[in-house]
Design brief:
Strand content of chain B: under 5%
Largest interface: A-B, 36 and 43 residues
Helix content of chain A: 25-40%
Number of strands of chain B: 2
Shape of chain A: globular
Largest sheet of chain B: 2 strands, antiparallel
Shape of chain B: flat
Order of helices and strands of chain A: HHEEEEEHEHHH
Radius of gyration of chain B: 19 Å
Strand order of the largest sheet of chain A: 1-2-3-4-5
Number of domains of chain A: 2
Order of helices and strands of chain B: HHHHHHHEEH
Helix content of chain B: 55-70%
Strand order of the largest sheet of chain B: 1-2
Oligomer: heterodimer
Distance between the termini of chain A: 64 Å
Number of helices of chain B: 8
Distance between the termini of chain B: 21 Å
Radius of gyration of chain A: 24 Å
């Protein structure tokens, strides 16, 4: 800085910035290379864990054999097929819809005939805590007395959620479910989140229905 | 000022949120529950400390004209590193923070400390300043998060307090955050004014806040008392 000619020479300034950017690029590249493996593992683990929770026992690798299909509304859906001994035991479809605070992504599992089995919403959405999360989250309810008593939460099965569980056993009809029709549960005060869950289940269910109707010929593409 | 003082000033005297009123966007957005606030606070602390350290090391080399771009590049590097590390080893926290994690780059607390402190002070002092400011930020986020989460959903860190399930919905959203933060700021000013009154001096906001156009702090003292 003492050397005024040096400090105000535009070529020197450009060179200095280039060096700073170069060093930081190296640091970022090194971190990216080092964390690439763990990131893949943790992402694959979340999907694999979800699929294991919502599908009946399977012996193939649905995540590796996933195919991309499109719902009749034009929404992209990822389809996982669970097989046991070569026999299809269920499907799972991943779809997303807009909620109150951005995208809400979820995985819906189906019986082999296309009936909805279990709906789970993936973590990472930004629905309002305490309001929207009543519709989306299957959180283990822990109370302060449980903590004091030392009661461990039961993680062996999926915690219930009235809104998500209301889709169980439903088959998509001609029209999307609405509040007025029976069977599907909307939570008052959380309209956007309820709609988002309804939308994503609808996209997944109609995509799976179309996939089953067209036979599995599309799989070759 | 000793290193310890540089560290502790972030908690109260120069708290980034409550006194400097910096970084309002992440404060309001990520203090809707305590866990989110904690994750955001710790990520910011790491970035603050790292960028303060590096900037204080290179402060004599950086030409004055391009210091801001250099600082931003350093900060962005640290944010990217934190983002990748969290994605790999704390995926849940990574997903709850969403867009607010990369937005630490433009958090004015980080650039503010780089420009106001690390570019003028040595290595140790800058590290202490970054750590103190970061932990002060975390402290405020967790406090706000606890209050907002409790009022909105009746839980603390996701554990139900068995008081109510349906609280004040507004507290879970940005307006509730604003209202609560406003009340806390008012409370802090009140406390500082009381202290000043007891000591017999008028509360004078620090000169760098540039309060020439506002005399709200002076309303509390009916007649001017001797100024320190």
């Amino acid at each position: 800085m003492k050397d005024m000619t040096k400090a105000s020479n535009p070529f020197y300034l450009a060179f200095f910035l280039l060096v700073v950017c170069g060093v930081s690029t190296l640091v970022m590249a090194y971190t990216a290379v080092k964390t690439d493996g763990p990131i893949r593992i943790s992402q694959a683990k979340e999907t694999a864990d979800s699929l294991k929770m919502i599908l009946p026992a399977f012996d193939n690798d649905p995540a590796a054999e996933a195919i991309d299909i499109v719902s009749p509304d034009g929404e992209p859906v990822k389809l996982y097929t669970a097989k046991n001994g070569g026999q299809v035991v269920g499907y799972a479809a991943e779809a997303a819809a807009s909620g109150f605070g951005g995208k809400v992504a979820g995985i819906v599992s189906f019986k082999p005939d296309g009936t909805i089995d279990t709906v789970i919403v993936k973590s990472g959405h930004s629905e309002t805590p305490g309001i929207g999360t009543k519709v989306t989250d299957r959180s283990v309810k822990r109370t302060i007395s449980d903590v004091v008593k030392g009661v461990k939460p039961d993680t062996s099965k999926l915690p219930p959620n009235a809104a998500l569980d209301s889709y169980r056993g439903v088959k998509p009809g001609e029209d999307k479910w609405t509040k007025e029709k029976d069977g599907v549960h909307f939570v008052s005060g959380a309209t956007y989140s309820s709609n988002a869950v309804c939308d994503l289940v609808w996209y997944a269910a109609t995509a799976v229905r179309e996939y089953l109707e067209n036979g599995e010929t599309k799989e070759e593409n | 000022m000793s290193i310890f003082k540089e560290f502790t000033k972030g908690f109260w005297k120069e708290n980034p949120v409550l006194v400097l009123v910096l970084g309002m966007c992440p404060t309001l957005a990520t203090s809707s529950d305590a866990v989110k606030g904690l994750a955001m606070g710790l990520a910011t602390t790491f970035v603050l400390m790292g960028s303060n350290l590096v900037i204080s090391v290179i402060r004599k080399l950086v030409p004055g004209k391009i210091r801001i771009p250099c600082y931003i590049v350093v900060i962005a590097t640290f944010v990217t590193v934190v983002k990748l590390l969290m994605q790999a080893y704390a995926p849940e926290a990574y997903q709850t923070l969403g867009i607010f994690l990369p937005l630490i780059v433009v958090n004015c607390i980080v650039l503010g400390r780089a420009e106001a402190f690390a570019s003028k002070n040595g290595l140790l002092a800058s590290a202490a300043d970054g750590l103190g400011m970061g932990l002060g930020f975390t402290f405020v986020l967790v406090c706000l998060g606890c209050i907002r989460e409790f009022l909105a959903a009746g839980t603390l860190f996701g554990i139900s307090m068995q008081c109510w399930d349906n609280g004040f919905a507004i507290m879970g959203q940005a307006p509730g955050g604003f209202i609560l933060l406003g009340l806390i700021l008012a409370g802090m000013n009140l406390l500082n004014m009381h202290k000043a009154k007891k000591a017999g001096v008028r509360y004078e906001p620090p000169a760098e806040f540039d309060c020439r156009h506002c005399s709200i702090c002076k309303l509390s003292t009916e007649e001017p008392v001797k100024t320190k």
